[in-house]
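Run: sequence + UFG -> complex structure.
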Amino acid sequence: MAILVTGGLGYIGSHTVVELLNNNFEVVIIDDLSNTEKFILENIEEVSGKKPIFYPFDLKRKELLKQVFDAHNIEGCIHFAAFKAVGESQVKPIEYYENNLFSLINLLQEFRERNISNFIFSSSCTVYGQADKMPIDEETELKLPESSYGKTKQMGEEILRDFAAAYKKRVTLLRYFNPIGAHPSAKLGELPIGIPNNLIPFVMQTAAGIREKLSIWGDDYPTVDGTAVRDYIYVVDLAKAHVKALQKLINSTEEKVIDIYNLGTGKGSSVLEVVHAFEKANDVKVPYEIKDRRAGDITIAYANADKAEKELGWKSETSLEEALRTVWQWQKYLETRIN
Ligand code: UFG
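>> structure
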């Protein structure tokens, strides 16, 4: 029996593959390499000492997908593969809907035709929009996200609810807060392809002198220091949650399940707090300037992750500083690859 991991060479995917291999799962990866590089596969093998099976293709290629399901005894899937740049989704909405929704539907068709259950979906706290109260638990009302990217996540969740209900399947929706950090080996992390949009990759590159200055988008929010607040969760902790969620699904005796879990630390940090924590953790400087608010940003989001602790036996273990140290080690590793 094998677990299919789509987007398994991506940022969260690669860390999750390592945790699955460490837990003796057989892993089949499909990844079209659109936002990652092939060396990540070698590094997964180096870090885990095991070899996942890898297919490089786009999930929209239905005939190739069928061949993978024909070739392996797939008992479940963790579906990471998706476009994920919020800003880009606003200028390329059709590409986002096409990529994120068709790939999901193609997978679900295989699951339905072959009567496979156990589907885990990478969702995002973006489905809550700006929630009215903090922390955000799973009962919090959903708001239509502003970005087309966010809408594909919310639509994906709806498609999966219908799929679970109609075909009696087991589905888990994992709503990530802000994943950060790199593997302790420094061999896996978030690849900075192009100009980073997310905070941590930009901070990392600014500290390394690749970018001159970090722009902090707004210091007039109603928060501790005026900068926006997020819940930064260490990527290896996040990866471990997937293994727990998968084990729960596989061991479930119920025919139909829709489980939803927020994955965060439960603690909010402001942009300035993150920048200062990075400087302190790594003894480096991060030059920054305050700019206007970024369109579409919310003020504050942090999780109530009690449900994941209670039902999955999972909680965040790694401090912000520790996570930020791994980011800097990852940057050093990337420099050795270039030089
Ligand atoms: N920020 C800066 N400067 C930067 C980059 C980010 O000040 O150069 C700020 C943002 O304004 C925000 C915070 O840092 O206040 C975090 O920004 P990120 O872009 O890292 O993360 P977001 O919270 O905006 O977005 C993340 C994921 C999305 C997801 C969203 C909500 O990247 O995929 O959370 O779930 F949709």
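>> summary
Residues 84, 86, 124-126, 150, 178, 197-199, 202, 214-217, 228, 230, 271, 294, 297 surround UFG (CB under 6 Å). The CA atoms of residues 61 and 103 lie 9 Å apart.
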